[in-house]
Structure formats: C-alpha cells, structure tokens
Amino acid sequence: MDYFWIFLIIFSGACLQGITGFGSGLVAVPLLSLLLPLTVITPLLSVINLTLAIYLGWVLRRYISVSKWQPLLVTGVIGTLAGNYALAFYDLILLQQAMAVAVIVVAVIFWLGFQFHTRGTPEQQGFTGLLAGFGNGALTLGGPPVVLFLTSHRLDRLSFRATLALFFLVLAVTNVTSFAVRGIYQPELLPILVVLLVGALSGAWLGHYLSPKLSEDVFRKLTLGLVMVAGFVALVTS
Length: 238
Fold this sequence. Notes:
Helix 1 runs parallel beside helix 9 (190-210) and helix 7 runs antiparallel to helix 10 (216-237). The protein is mainly α. The two termini are 31 Å apart. It is built from 10 helices and no strands.
C-alpha cells in the first residue's frame, strides 16, 4: 500500500512538472515525508529530478539553447556547491525566510500584471544562476528564482519549459554526483526508486501532453501560483 501512495504522489508532482517545467518537489517532498525519512527522500528525488530533466529536455530538445544560457548553467553549479557547503556549516533560517518573502513579493507583482523585462545578459544570468543554485543546494528553493527570471525574460512557453529542463538537468547531475561520491545510494533503496521512476515518467508524459492545451494566460498564472506556493512552503517550514 505504501508503494501505491508513493507512486501516486510522485505521479502527481511529475505531471505538474510536465505541464509547467517545475514543481514536482512542491508535491512530492511534504507528502513523501509522511511515508519516508528525508534522508531517503532527498537523494532519491535527486535521481528522479535528473530523470525528469532528461525526459523533458529530450522532448523539448528543439527549443534548448546551451550556448545562450551558459552563464546561467555554470553559475548554477557553482551556487549549488556553495549551498551544499553552507548547509553543512551555517544556520540558514534567516536567509531562507528572506528569500521566501522576496520570491512571494515578486511573484505577486508579476501575477498582478506588472512586469520587469530582462535581456538575459551574462551578468543577469550569472546572478540568477548563483541565487537559484545556492537556493537549491542549501534551501531546496532553487526553482523560484530562475522561474521568475525566465518569466521576466518573456520566453515563449516551449522555450521556457526547455530552459528550465536544461537548468534542472545540470543541477540534478551535480546533486546526484555529490550523493554518489558520499556513498548515499544503497541496494535496499532500489524498490522505492523503481516505483518513483515509473510514477515520475508516466506523470511527466501526461503533463507534457496536457501542457499545450492550456492557454498562455492560464500557463503563466499556474507557474506564478506555484512560485508563490513554493515561497509560502519555504517560509512556513523555516
């Protein structure tokens, strides 16, 4: 029965990510924590995030531009590693609260129709990559900064989702490599991982199928709504 609920939870989260390009963790982490310890959830979801990023990156490969977003990707890796280090040695509660409040405020401003336009310069990408990477490595809050940045860059829906898939692919490779080097993955976790993989891939497929059926306005409000939820969750859990 636990395997059924694990499948259903990750299926729902992956479907959401298939639609918008992010958000699986918002569903999966709090619900899976009722069934599994966080020491198991975090490394396994890193594998799931890698799998989802590979799948969504593949189906959206025509809209991916590595060279265009190179500063964002490089600084995302640097920020993730810095966040992992900070997590081990510092109390980051105040930083998490400040980032959560900032994310909520910006998302609400965008929701109300006010837009900041960015040109995606290397400097802007570098700052966003560091912020999102650090949030991912230290606070599990890496999605909202890059989502808000890409929203302000006014990408079309397919390019938006493809760029998120590429960014999360790079961060997931960093996390999985880190966990693997530390010997976190053990054979007894394999059955849970298989259930998670099946649920994630089937949910992502359904989400990718449903995404084109949403209007641009609904898609935009859904993504901004998820960012606000992420900010509130981070604020409450801190």
